[in-house]
Amino acid sequence: MSIFKKKAEKIPDGCIPVIRCSICTGEQVAGFKNKTTGKIDEVMLIQDDLDLLKFRQRYGIKDKIEKVY
Q: Which pLDDT tens digits describe the chain residue by residue (69 residues)?
């Protein structure tokens, strides 16, 4: 147990959080999509709800996350 709380990492400037989903395999990867270029930087693999919760907590995301296919 730690006395100090970890601060949430910052979402990169000009980016929105997204989950890229594969139609064929069902694989999901969380990352950030650049609003201007549309490029997605992958951060972590999402295998279950716990992974998604960890991603949300790590970056302090409270809003709905867009899914990109």
A: 566 667 778 988 999 999 999 999 999 999 999 999 999 999 999 999 999 999 999 999 999 999 999
- The residue type of 7 is K
**Does this model's pTM top 0.70?**
yes
d(CA 58, CA 51): 10
Antiparallel, parallel or unpaired: β 15-21 and 66-68: parallel
β partners of residue 18: 31, 66
Place of tokens 């709905």: 64
The single-letter code of the amino acid at 3 is I
Structure tokens at 48: 């279950």
